[in-house]
TrEMBL record:
Classification lineage: Eukaryota, Sar, Stramenopiles, Ochrophyta, Eustigmatophyceae
Nitrite/Sulfite reductase ferredoxin-like domain boundaries: 147-214
Biased segments, Low complexity type: 17-31
Matching Pfam families: NIR_SIR, NIR_SIR_ferr
Sequence similarity: Belongs to the nitrite and sulfite reductase 4Fe-4S domain family.
Parts forming coiled coils: none
GO molecular-function term, one example from the UniProt record: metal ion binding
Keyword Lipid biosynthesis: no
Keyword line: 4Fe-4S, Heme, Iron, Iron-sulfur, Metal-binding, Oxidoreductase
Name listed for the protein in its UniProt record: Nitrite reductase
All residue ranges annotated as the Nitrite/sulphite reductase 4Fe-4S domain in the record: 226-383
Amino acid sequence: MGAFIRPRPLSREETLASPRFTTPPSTSTATRTEDQVMGGLATTMEGSQHFPRPPPMELPPDVDQLFGPVTKTGTDYLPAETLARAEKGSFMEKIKLKKDGSVAWREVHELAALLRSGQYTWEELDLMTDKDDMDQRLKYAGIFHRRKKTPGRFMMRMRIPNGVVTSEQLFFIAEAIAKYGEDYEAVVDITTRQNLQLRGLKLEDTSEIITGLLARGLGCYSSGLDNVRNVVGNPLAGIDPLEIYDTRELCTAINDMITNHNLGNPEWANLPRKFNIAVSGSRDDYSHTHINDIGFQAVPHAASGIIGFNVVLGGYFSAKRVATSLELDLWVPPGQVLNLCYSVLRLFRDHGNRKDRQKARLLWLIEEWGVETFRRNLLAEMQSNTAYGAGAGETLPVDVAQAHAGGWERV
């Protein structure tokens, strides 16, 4: 497989002690002065110019040593009833059952190694590889083949929770594209989900880029097709003077739960359709919780004053239909956010529509069951889930819900 870069994200303690990390301000930012806000921003920007760039470290050439042995795929997590529905489902369900998308997490490295070894040209490898492997399943590794417009070139979609990147990470991303010189096909996109995409990559280069991202605390697995997409948070997290909750660490925690710290999590590798999660940290809903499958809207509890989240579900935005999220009459503290995400995903994975991809998002499951039935099933799932702390939310007190409206003067 050749040389890799050791995927060693910093621990939380190491991150907090690192010179490239500015400790997030208190969630009670409404009382901070303009000078304090801008001073903190200036400190962050100044510090980011001096990030150390550690040398890459080699990894063992065996992919199983890097990612662990293959014990379960996404299909293995499907209950028998769900599996039976998938067998009669859409064309994509049949593709997933024939060969699970999670295998791409390792196969992308094997395909890249074959090209780097010189054993095959791209054209030869393409002819001997199942087209669904190349054009569909690689999306589970965040690698998209653009066969019609740029055959032999690929797009890589990353995972950047809350859109937070360091200059060290950006240096690496820029160098990954810069090696292509003036090749017009190689560019970087900034997406509407606070994410980055690298376009015009050659398949043989993807393995080194993936492991380089892992070494720097980023990833790209499970960023395409029927997966949970990049977790969106407040773009002004940490510097918003009207911030209720700093969303950065929570978005990272949700991402880590879903992706197994960017190494791939087969438990969520066979969803009926894509899935979006957004966390709003202020009354200005910058992260657009109303068009995400799960939306967390930060509000203080009316009785205790504890900062938690109103939960809205089933937002949908496409050319054919636009539907705002449904109020669930549910409030959860931060400690129950992972439990709620886990529980909603289980309900969606096991009961979502697998026959019609146009009606396979969470919204249609909620409409099929009704809001009250979905809420009841969700609370039961949360109470029985011990993986992330069994518990449940509570009905909203009358004065907890707050309108996400207004703004603050540009400084």
